[in-house]
Known about the structure:
By secondary structure, this protein is mainly α. It contains four helices and no strands.
Amino acid sequence: MGEVEQEEPRGQxxxxxxxxxIARLFEKMDNNNDGRLSPKEVKGPLANNFSKIDTNxxxxxxxxxxxxxxxxxxxxxxxxxx
Length: 82
């Protein structure tokens, strides 16, 4: 009693600003739980840019490929000033 779980602020759910948490994304989208996302499983920007994100052209997106994907809306990674 007296313990309170702290919630993460909305929009800051363990991911970088402007980018959803990849683990949560897979929880929601990976319907067959194979650890990869097929074109039928993805929505939104992932679906729109599937072929660009699928760097090994195997027809699936992995967590690694999504981590390396360009940020939406041209955002740059933190710390870079180009």
